[in-house]
């Protein structure tokens, strides 16, 4: 089935007499006749539900829909995008291991890697999103376990050459993890370009209405963990009576370990209620992405021609350095987010934002309502000046998340605010 059909139909398959719409199984726990049956579930000998921290039917169904959209073998929902990034890396890397990450990634992911995971003993090297294959080669070490990139970066809108990163990572038998939050599977399916694992903050376009925090990890099933150095997947897990994930679960080894090991131990599970809301959002994802992209294209063209604007960064503009590469990876459009540098420095940016009426100032991004944010003084305020430059964030840069309202109304609002700069 096509992606727009999968958005509506994948995951939930009701049987005779069952509800047409995905039920919210708001129960922490599940009943069994005998302790023995339950024991088999504990030992991973049988699949089934026993405690929502490990698995829940509502979560499972929504995860199946997202796995279908990305073309993966399995997926796991998490309480937030941050939890998805955390687990995606720690599922294969521990203290003493090394990870290569693009410097142009979401600010929260950067802090997670550069501070929290470093404090836990994982070593990180951050590289330019436009690094050459030769330079990237030099970053690999014997203990490198993962490469982490973002399809279209929040907020600098760098478009990453997924194939380049995949080819170099695979030459070292290392897995490539891609944060595909901004593009969504509607605009880009990283597995088709060699990515091994995809993560999302579902709090953004997937939910699409800014109602439910969430994340997801999707496993392509394509990476051969036995070829690389991944003892966490290829040697016995004593906490499951010596289960070897690659032997028992084959292509689903990575995602099974995410659920049975890290979700069990860390516990950042999504609530069934949020998964239900996420599922409603997914129903219209394809429709909304089409509108977000069409609106953003019109808005970007308007801003680029405006004399109060210093520069506009949107991969859909012919003047953009990523125009060609975005056409390759996202032929139907990239996302609804634009970054714009207003004339008059930081003060000009603030004046512009405060002059807006329809577009509201919020931290959030990528939902139905047009909104703006000043990254340098909010999401990225922890970064040093050099880190800001590396992440592609100027002091006068405003992140504009174009919603699904009528484009003429959005443009009228921007026009009156620019007059005030
Ligand atoms: C928002 C975001 C995250 C973090 O997700 P939360 O759901 O806020 O925890 C990760 N990556 C990207 C690209 C994001 O935009």
Could you explain how this protein is built, in words?
This protein has 421 residues and is α/β, with parallel strands linked by helices. It has two domains: 278 residues, Type I PLP-dependent aspartate aminotransferase-like (Major domain) (Aspartate Aminotransferase, domain 2, 3-Layer(aba) Sandwich), CATH 3.40.640.10; 133 residues, Alpha-Beta Complex (Aspartate Aminotransferase, domain 1). Helix content is 39%, strand content 14%. It is built from 17 helices and twelve strands. The protein has a seven-stranded mixed β-sheet, sandwiched between helices. Helix 8 links the parallel strand 5 and strand 6. Helix 1 runs antiparallel to helix 3, helix 3 runs parallel beside helix 12 and helix 15 crosses helix 17. Pyridoxal-5'-phosphate (PLP) binds next to helix 4 and helix 5.
Topology:
Blueprint: H1 3-9, H2 35-42, H3 57-70, E1 74-78, H4 81-90, E2 98-102, H5 107-119, E3 123-127, H6 133-137, E4 144-150, H7 162-171, E5 175-179, H8 184-187, E6 197-201, E7 215-219, H9 231-234, H10 245-249, H11 253-266, H12 272-283, H13 285-304, E8 309-313, H14 323-329, E9 337-342, H15 345-355, E10 360-361, E11 371-373, H16 385-390, E12 397-401, H17 407-419
Parallel strand pairs: 2-3, 2-4, 4-5, 5-6, 10-11
Antiparallel strand pairs: 1-7, 6-7, 8-9, 9-12, 11-12
Helix pairs in contact: 1-3, 3-12, 13-17, 15-17
